[in-house]
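WARN no homologs supplied; continuing
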Amino acid sequence: MSDSLGSGPAPAPPAPPPQTTLRRRLAELRGPAVAPHPLDARALAALAANPGCRRRALLDGAGVDKAALASALGSPAPFGQSQFAFMRGNAFEAKVKADGGTELMRLLSERLGGQSPPPAPGEVLVPDLSAAGPEGRTARTALALREATEARAWALLDHPLLALEVAGSPAYLEPDAVVVRPDGRWTVVEIKSFPMIDGAADAAKVGAAARQAAVYVLALERVALHTAGAEVADRVLLVCPKDFSNLPAASVVDVRKQLSVTRRQLARLTRIEDIAAGLPEGTTFDLDHCSGEELTAAVESVSAAYAPECLSACELAFHCRHRAREEGAVEALGRGVRGELGGLTTVGAVLAAAHGGAGDPADPTVLALRRAAALRAEALAAAGTSPEAPAAGGEGEAAEPADEPADEPVDESAAGPAAGPVAGSAGEAVTCR
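OK structure emitted
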């Protein structure tokens, strides 16, 4: 339609809101044309387990695809699930939530409902949570939670979207389900495809699911602060296939310990803008426009805190392990070993101290190393073996751990109390698949 006489030109459309300095900087780091890789609860739990790793904090905050970055660096990690596992998990979740969540509500009432009967079919509200963009979905989820709490009714939120600030950057999290009870309590529901045999599931996988659920509880607490009468339960409902069938079974998992540890660890994370401010000018992780050498230099410009536990939780673990071995860093042997060695930070320094070539004789660590070396020499002499023979591969490689697949459990039992993951148990170092 043409402008009328004297009306002048049509007004220009409003300009989009300017990006904040942090968002612009993070976009430059991952590449201006690259969409941010989402940070899920599993990655967030792994990040909380190693809060001293500035490298992971920056890459996750910037939304860099660490799996693609690891492949570009020449150290790919075999993470992920097979297509069959995805299909089986999705089919089981659909079965649990079918008919308006009737079976899920029965399991919830059976495990957490006490003497009250489960809601009848049709009594459960299932609000529509669709909206444009993550901000819109987060706002729609918060509104649905408030409406259900004010209505004092049962409600099932299927894949709500929650927001949680991590190191100064927002992370969007999507639990399997959240149930709102008439008394105002909100319960997180985790649906997993690993079996529950004779009423018990694999302890490592349950621990990983508990750490993941604790992140969801933290995000829900932010919403509950602005909702009158709301209370977030610190016990979550874990739903798994029963025995070797596809029938659902449920168990209650207390996440108070994981919740307190995760809250404390996330508070320790260095803010992302502080890490980005210390990078050299022009640093970027743009996979489309950087060579392998440039990406390696960019990654090495951010300090890492490698430990063998990273092999089951981070896509860059093989690259960091290779660098740690090249430098002879004792971190490659585990957090417990690193803590016991005190100021001895390299394998070469440890061997020199053990053989009397360096180190303070008054240092208890040096004394223990020399005593261990003397005992080893006595044992080898009694066996008729020369004590000068290297154990395997020469200095810096004698004590290296064997290669471990990234998708298998990492035994932390030998690492001591300093090596505990977020959940505080040695058997919980495995990311739930």
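Residues 203-224 form the longest helix (22 residues).
OK
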